[in-house]
Amino acid sequence: MPRRRRLRRIVSPPGFxxxxxxxxxxxxxxxxxxxxEEYEALKLADYxxxxxxxxxKHMGVSRATFARIYESARRKIAxxxxxxxxxxxxxxxxxxxxxxxxxxxxxxxxxxxxxxxxRHCPMCKSEKxxxxxxxxx
Amino acid sequence: xxxxxxxxxxxxxxxxxxxxxxAAWFCVLDEETGQTKFYKNENKDAQGGAGTxxxxxxxxxxxSKVISGDFGPKAKDLxxxxxxQMVIIQDDDVTIEDVIRxxx
Lengths: 137, 104
Description:
- The complex is a heterodimer of chains A (137) and B (104).
- Chain A has 137 residues and is of the alpha/beta class.
- In chain A, 29% of the residues lie in helices and 21% in strands.
- Chain A has helices at 36-47, 52-59, 63-82, and strands spanning 8-10, 18-19, 31-35, 86-90, 94-96, 100-103, 109-111, 129-132.
- In chain A, strands 2-4-3 form a 3-stranded mixed sheet. Chain A has a 3-stranded antiparallel sheet with strand order 7-6-8, with no helix packed on it. In chain A, strands 1-5 form a two-stranded parallel ribbon.
- In chain A, a hairpin with a 5-residue loop joins strand 6 (100-103) and strand 7 (109-111).
- Chain B has one domain (2-103): Nucleotidyltransferase, domain 5 (2-Layer Sandwich).
- The longest helix of chain B has 12 residues, at 50-61.
- Helices cover 28% and strands 24% of the residues of chain B.
- Chain B has helices spanning 50-61, 73-81, 96-103, and strands at 2-7, 25-30, 36-40, 65-68, 85-88.
- The A-B interface holds A 91, 95-96, 98, 106-116, 122-124 and B 64-65, 67, 76-77, 80-81, 83-90, 102-103.
- Strand 7 (109-111) of chain A pairs antiparallel with strand 5 (85-88) of chain B.
């Protein structure tokens, strides 16, 4: 039995659900599923310009595994571009590096979901928030 | 916006339940109208996956915030995935009414 696949840490999920080609001659034929961890790998390496070793640390996997995820991301995007396929982002084997906040007035701990823009305590509406760093990472 | 508060009973005077997946009841509070509705937790005595099943129920109810004492790792991940806010209160002996009063 193969070893359980380690979850890859994602700092923030992609801000889109997918990409679709336009102006192509034929119909858009099928789609490519880009996993969250592949998006994250591409972002760390090619947008944040980290080297693979640093990036692998960020995602909590080994350098070799990172390289494999990155490779797969590039191949999928290349395939989508060449075959004019739609790109869809899927969750994959990831966990979000969700930040926990604590309210300095009533000491309630809570998360702030992505779409939630108002940064105040859900219980007492205080704005004195503090980020709790998760120690197990 | 709907908020769920985990409860030990089906009334406003019931005590707050610190467990999420194995809470006895869920109090669904509609923050606009202030109306509450209680749902019994069918997964309370489930063998396993109580947290997961409960999250499914939350999504079904269209909840955007959950107030409880603690969340298991599976429930946490799923709630994150569905963009549901988690709020952890550690107070003992508070009733549902107290919690609702605090939110307002």
